[in-house]
Structure formats: C-alpha cells, structure tokens
Amino acid sequence: MDLGSSSIYFYEPIYIFILLLFLGLIYIPILAISFFKVKLSIIGIGLQCISIIVYLLVGIYMVGGGYFQDGHSTDQLIFSNYGFLELNLLTYPYIFLALATTIGKKD
User: What is the sign of the dihedral through the CA atoms of 9, 14, 16 and 21?
Assistant: First the structure.
C-alpha cells in the first residue's frame, strides 16, 4: 500500500522527537522536586539512584547511537533518529522515580 510519502521518517513523526526531548528535559526538575519535597527511606534513595543511573545510561545510548549511525551518512542523524525505542527506554527512569516518591513521605 503506497501512501505517496517519500519521507524516511514516516513511522517516526517529528512529534515523537519533540515529546522525547520534552520528557528528557522535564526529568531534571521533577527529580529536584523529589529531592526537596519528599523524605525518602533507604529503599527510596536506592530507587532514586537507580532512576538517575538509568537516565544517564539512556542518554549515553541515545548519543552513542547517533554517533555510530553518523559514520557514513549524508545528513545529520544524531537528533533526527530518535523514535519509539528511545521513548520507551526513557520511561524507566520515571518508573523508578515514581516508586521512590511513592515509598517516601511528603515533608
């Protein structure tokens, strides 16, 4: 079935990249709010550390994937190749952060 689109990004529309960028940037203020507004237990602190580590690993994966694909490419793929996989991977830091704040008590 040909829809007449010649775009190579047909299954990864631009709003996925914008949503991914938004979720990546909004994580930092949410993390700061959880540091200052929630009193965490030992398990909560551990889950928050896991959240930060996963966030950094997803960031390294995203940047590294762009560098590896850019080797013989004619256009810049470091930002335009983010899609549904990265969006799914970026949910894991939020899951661990939500678990940490659920276990903790509000100050």
Answer: positive
Neighbour-count burial of 76, counting CB atoms closer than 10 A to its CB (0-12 exposed, 13-18 middle, 19+ buried): exposed
Residue showing tokens 């990546």: 24
Q: Using alpha carbons only, what angle is made at residue 22 by residues 28 and 76, rounded to the nearest 5 degrees? A: 115
Strand ranges (E), the chain? 38-39, 105-106
Residue type at position 44: G
Per-residue model confidence as pLDDT tens digits over 49-89? 999 999 888 888 777 665 555 455 555 554 555 666 777 77
